[in-house]
Automatic annotation (TrEMBL):
Pfam families linked to this entry: NDK
Protein name per its UniProtKB record: NDK5 kinase
Gene3D superfamilies for this protein: Nucleoside diphosphate kinase-like domain
SMART domains in alphabetical order: NDK
Keywords, alphabetical: Kinase, Transferase
Amino acid sequence: MCSPVLVCALRGIDAFRALGAALQGWTRSRDRLSTGDSLPRALMALTPEVTFRQAILFFTEADLVAGKAQHTKLTQISFSPVVGESWRGRAESLFSFLQAGAQLLCTVLLIKPGVWSHGLPRILRDLHLEKFCVVGMKHLELGVAAAASLLPCELQQDPAAVEAHCAYLTSGTALVLCLQRPNAVKKLMDLLGPEDPQLAQALDPRLWRAQYGTSTVQNGFYGSRSYAMAVQDVKLFFPEGLCCAQGQPVQEQEV
């Protein structure tokens, strides 16, 4: 090659999709600016396996872990609160992270009033088929504040929408499940589909909101929309802890 290249090892939530979307936008901007080769081009690995094979071509363990080389190209640091101790940093090896495989994560599924009482056996069967493990379960009557906290930010700005959703969510008993599996948050969102059951029906009749929902208010389910929200939802609905859950404690996951 006649020109130098920059090789980066990156880590983030939903990294492949997020980086792919960012590069796609950057490429469109690049093509509008120049039709030649004066601007740089970017390539990315598309799977964890390819990432690992390419990483070992360009980096060593010392390059990726603090304290093993005088000049560290990349350091993976995570922070976790420890009872009785101050915040501490922990260096993680990218190689160890990739070799360990997908981490078990928790997410929360709330089955709304009127749905779980007649659909629970089928829902539990489908969760089992999708390799979810139920590590927490309780039925409860939501208060107005808890019901409002489950709404997307855009809906919380609409008083009429908040009133309609809260009236429904507090009209009966809901069933809350804490579910665990690799990539749990995204997998559950993929199963539920869009908030609007009609849109879900148009996309795929097998989506859960297409099967169980009747309107944007009575759409059958609430699911944690992000990993950060899943951690908060677990703390909200299961403050006493989970049954047989594996992985990091919720206090560490919150960071």
